[in-house]
Specification:
Residues 231-240 have a biased composition (Low complexity). It is built from seven helices and 16 strands. The longest helix is centred in the middle third of the chain and has 15 residues, at 106-120. With 310 residues, it is α+β, with helices and mostly antiparallel strands. The strands form four sheets. It has a five-stranded antiparallel beta sheet, with helices on both faces. Bound molecules: coenzyme A (COA).
Length: 310
């Protein structure tokens, strides 16, 4: 299991090692750090046993346990690993800070690095957090990080809220399709602008071309049912086709979208404006609330959360 170094403005998160054991015992010394846990990790022996379990834990590469360092000193512990409490291999986040360093936004800063890593490097569909009902600081922290409270239940021996964070790409655009009457003219008209803005030609085929920038891409395709008008007068009178794919999510890859051949419904329109369709990405993941023992938050549509995960 490889646990990569993660850096933030003030902190370094690095993989937990056996040599960190006594530093972790210091993080948990006193009643505060394990106040909301089932075990009293303020007891050094219980804490050492807990560190051993963490060191023995196996999970997918890139997940695991990190110590949180500030200026070379270990001041906390954090994890991102398959949940022992939520079924379905859901990945759960956790964080613990030496109270001597509390109230400076350090836990927020450390914890924020984990979903970032989970989404950007590991490509996980969601990150979960279980927070004790009475743990005000931790509830504020997950809210600040954009987690959504999706329910509540008994976890780790007490009442916990269940939070989930989704990749920030959710709801952002995935690609745009433009149907144009004259591909050559469309390229001449705005191809140069895309290049100026850093877009790169991605694919080209008989009736179309796509450009890519970051995660998004743009497809320009000449409608086969409306051949390019040959004269200016014909161009003015030209009909374009407004298309609605029958399977709007059929294409989630960066390959040329198949919507025109995947049951798309096309109808002629009187407008000369090219038809356009914006398709946002869907996030694919694992079953969520249905097989867990918590009750949904009535103020949040679990269907929406689940849909966004499938
Ligand atoms: C919860 C914990 C990680 C917060 O650490 P921290 O570094 O003090 O937190 P931050 O400074 O990043 O602040 C996080 C939020 O909690 C609030 N907060 C911090 N201490 C608080 C306290 N004692 N009471 C109420 N709110 C508090 C902060 O104001 C901040 O909220 P804001 O962003 O709305 O201002 C830390 O107290 C801790 O280790 N607790 C024990 C372990 C634990 O409960 N871990 C979470 C398991 S899910």
């Amino acid at each position: 299991m490889t646990v990569p170094d993660l850096r933030t403005a003030r902190l370094r998160l690095r993989g937990l090692e056996p040599a960190d054991t006594e530093a972790i015992v210091r993080v948990f010394a006193g009643p505060d750090t394990s106040r909301f846990l089932a075990a009293d990790l303020g007891d050094p022996d219980q804490c050492r046993a807990s560190v051993e379990r963490r060191l023995a834990c196996t999970g997918p590469d890139g997940t695991g346990h990190w110590v949180v360092e500030r200026d070379g000193d270990v001041i906390g512990l954090a994890h991102l690993r398959p949940s022992a409490e939520l079924s379905g291999d859901l990945v759960e986040i956790g964080y613990f800070l030496d109270p001597a360093h509390g109230g400076q936004g350090l836990s927020t800063e450390a914890a924020a690095a984990l979903p970032r890593h989970a989404f950007a490097a590991l490509g996980l569909p969601a990150v979960w957090a279980l927070v004790h009902e009475s743990n005000v600081a931790s509830r504020k922290l997950v809210h600040r990080l954009g987690f959504t409270d999706v329910g509540g239940g008994e976890h780790y021996g007490g009442p916990h809220r269940v939070f989930v964070a989704l990749p920030t790409t959710l709801g952002q655009w995935h690609h745009v399709e433009l149907w144009v009457p004259d591909l050559a003219r469309a390229e001449e008209s705005f191809g140069w602008l895309l290049a100026e803005l850093g877009w790169q030609e991605h694919q080209r085929w008989r009736d179309g071309v796509s450009w890519k920038l970051g995660a998004g891409y743009l497809v320009v395709e000449q409608s086969r049912r409306s051949p390019p008008p040959r004269t200016a007068a014909a161009r003015r009178a030209s009909t374009t086709w407004r298309c609605t794919p029958a399977r709007p999510n059929a294409s989630t890859s960066s390959r040329k979208p198949r919507s025109r051949t995947a049951g798309a419904r096309c109808s002629p329109t009187a407008t000369r404006t090219p038809a356009a369709l914006i398709i946002t990405p869907r996030i694919w993941g694992t079953p969520t609330a249905s097989n867990s023992n918590w009750s949904p938050n009535p103020r949040v549509s679990l269907d929406r959360v689940n849909q966004s995960l499938h």
